[in-house]
Amino acid sequence: MSESPEIAPPPAPPYPEAKLEPKPEVAGEAASLDGTKKKKRKPVEIAVRLVKVTKKFGAKVAVDDVSFTVKMGSVYGLIGPNGAGKTTTFSMLAGFLQPTMGQVEVLGHAPTQVDELRSRLGVLPQDALLPAQDKVGEFLRHAARLQNIPPDKVDAEVRDVLAEVDGKEWYDLRCGSLSHGMAKRVALAQALLGDPDVVLLDEPTAGLDPKVAYEVRQLIKGRKKRCTMIVSSHNLQELEEVCDAAAILDRGRVVASGTISELTAASEEVHFKLGRPPAGVAATGYRDGSGLPLAAIRELPIVKRVEFDEERREIVCYFDRGAPDPRGGAIDAESVIEAVLWVLLNHRIRIAGVTKGRGLEQRVMELT
Amino acid sequence: MNPLAEISLVVQRELRKNLRSVKGIILTALSIFGGTGTALLAVQAFHREFANVSAEEIRIGQQELFTKVYKDPVMGSYMSTAPLSLVFMLELTIWLAPLLIALSSFDAISGDIQHRTVRYWTVRTRRVSYYAGKFFGVWATVSTIVLAMDLCMWIAAIVKGEPAGATLSWGIRFWLVTLPISAVWCAIATLVGSLFRTPILSLLVTLAAFFAIWLFGFAIARGAEVAWLTYVYPNRYDVMLLSPRVENVGGGLGICLGAAAALTAAGVALFQRRDI
Q1: Of all helices (H) and strands (E), which one includes residue B168?
Q2: What does the pLDDT average to over B217-233?
Q3: Residues of A in contact with B6 (CB under 8 A)
Q4: What band does A363 get if pLDDT is binned at 50, 70 and 90?
Q5: What three-state secondary structure class fits A329?
Q6: Which long-range contacts (CB under 8 A, 24 or more apart) does B268-275 make?
Q7: Which residues of B touch A (CB under 8 A)?
Q8: What's the whole-number mean pLDDT along residues A151-158?
Q9: Model pTM score
Q10: Residue B19: closest CA among chain A residues belongs to which residue?
Q11: What is the mean pLDDT of residues B134-155?
């Protein structure tokens, strides 16, 4: 398979084309939980900004000169293998760790400016245990009080957020008696308390069974557009599913960043996964592309280049998005899929699947 | 939300947690039953010993005793009317409070850091409020337990025939004397505890620090050339705090609360800079 074009690392903003609207209350006044108006704040377009941030633990450099920007209203992923610096970056965003160098801003403030960020920043830390002796309701009530939610609204707010994580029956359970999945959802509930503008989620589905993980993903999707979310995760399919954009980290550095579409080259290439070859071709198994109509595909005017990935048994078609399509309109992934499928089916090639781009997982594997 | 409101919320939580946890209940029970029991036994022995001695003779004896103990005739005269059972309780409290403080506070911050529970709080409260809340929380817990011990002792003293007015008057005064002294011990314990991620290590180092301070102030320095070291020992300020002279009480209060404030400020400065 050919080399993909490199995506330039920051400092360029990762996804300038994202056009998500900020929450109304961020742009001006908003009704708070007690019906009073929150203090006026300047409109904020950038939720999170890291500028040349480095974090060292002794001689070890955990995060090295990382810069990226996250716009309001988007869901942004932090991706990378173990030790890539995801959690360290996340911890600096949450104010748990102080950067050795560089600048971290959340909603225009340093993460340690708690009063400015009160109830505007929610954090789900990856491995922070809930206080075992506390009841769930008691823990969340204390968190809500510290967020300055009025005392008469605290209980309703706590019960609402527990219901959102499907845990309204847990109010009187001790945190120490919760299963891993329940504890994770209670931790998620505390991050969502007070409807914050920015929510940081570190491995939100780690260790959860598939059903609960699915529910958490749905919850994150449900919160989309209501707030900005930064999700750190190993689960690339999950990130591809929920994120608008992401930064890929490796050994403490950002190796690529951009919209998910940019990262996966979804707007530049289409992958046709071939099914098991018919009996006549089985002996060669499409070796070196034999038995495949690659020449016919190359002749298609909307296809710029064609490759056959023997290992993955995929035909990869590259195209120039937006270039004029001789049949009318502009070339896009769908028009390429239509034309190439026509050729493949006419040659009785069995198709197992079609994907736009190469998938986040493949992209990460290439970069890290 | 201002820092005082944050501190108030943290203190309320600490009080609830400390007095409701298994550790808190055991410590409270041990303190009340152990402390009060020991004091009562001592009082009983005293009453047996001096059963046939008149009240005036006891007063004179007390005056001589306290003049000798405090090396001050004014103090001797002042303390001569204090119920001896309460004086014994005060000394016992001051003596044992550091142990109670060490056991109450060793995991207040280190436990939160070890399990990273602290991360749920520092996104909602200033670190200075969190730290100060922990300090005031331990202080409030210990003061509450000491008050409970004292209450038991006051009731026992009144039942044994001590005048209720004198018992309550001296009792409250003695309890107030324990507050600034325990504030210093609490500040030391909170500072030491905040430096470690492992509660057991925090406990051991706190106990070691307390023992070193005790050695400085009580054993090594007494009568030696390094007598100035006794000023490090918080319990030595009980004399100033008990004194009938306002300037002495003010001085004792200033030193104890100043030391507690300085230690807490140092702890806050370190805690604000550290990674959690």
Answers
A1: helix B164-194
A2: 71
A3: 146
A4: confident
A5: coil
A6: B268/B127, B268/B128, B268/B131, B268/B132, B270/B191, B270/B194, B270/B195, B271/B109, B271/B127, B271/B130, B271/B131, B271/B194, B272/A112, B272/B127, B272/B128, B273/A98, B275/A91, B275/A96, B275/A97, B275/A98
A7: 1, 6, 9, 13, 17, 20-21, 115-127, 272-273, 275-276
A8: 93
A9: 0.82
A10: A133
A11: 92
User: What is the tens place of the pLDDT at every residue in B69-124?
Assistant: 888 888 888 888 888 888 888 988 898 899 999 999 999 999 999 999 999 999 99
How far is the alpha carbon of B193 from chain A, nearest alpha carbon, in Å? 18
The amino acid that residue B160 corresponds to is: K
Answer for the pair B39, B92: CB distance below 8 angstroms, yes or no: yes
The CA-based dihedral angle spanning residues A259, A260, A265, A270, taken in that order and rounded to the nearest 10 degrees:
-140
Inspect the interface and report whether the beta carbons of B275 and A129 lie closer than 8 Å.
no
Is the distance from CB of A69 to CB of A48 less than 8 angstroms?
A: yes
Q: Which residues of B touch A142 (CB under 8 A)?
A: 9, 13
Q: What is the ipTM of this complex?
A: 0.86
Residue A302 pLDDT more than 80? yes
Chain A residues with at least one Cβ partner in B under 8 Å: 91, 94-98, 112, 114-115, 117-118, 121-123, 125, 127-131, 133-134, 139, 142-143, 145-148, 187, 190
Beta-bridge partner residues of A351: A274
| Distance (Å, whole) CA A47 – CA A22 | 9
pLDDT band at B254 (very low <50, low <70, confident <90, very high): very high
Distance CA B149, CA B27 (A): 12
As a whole number of Å, the CA-based R_g of chain A is: 24
Residue B224 has a pLDDT of 61
How many beta-carbon contacts under 8 Å exist across A and B? Answer: 66
CA dihedral sign of residues B170, B173, B175, B180: negative
d(CA A29, CA B264): 39
- Give the tokens for residue A143: 């968190």
Q: Which of A148-152, B51-55, B126-130 has the lowest mean pLDDT?
A: B51-55
Q: Which residues contact B246 (CB under 8 A, 6 or more apart)?
A: none
Lowest mean pLDDT among A54-68, A253-267, B85-99: A253-267
Read out DSSP for B28-75? HHIIIIIIHHHHHHHHHHHHHHTTTS-HHHHHHHHHHHHHHHHT-HHH
pLDDT tens for residues A207-241?
Answer: 888 888 888 888 888 888 788 999 998 888 888 88
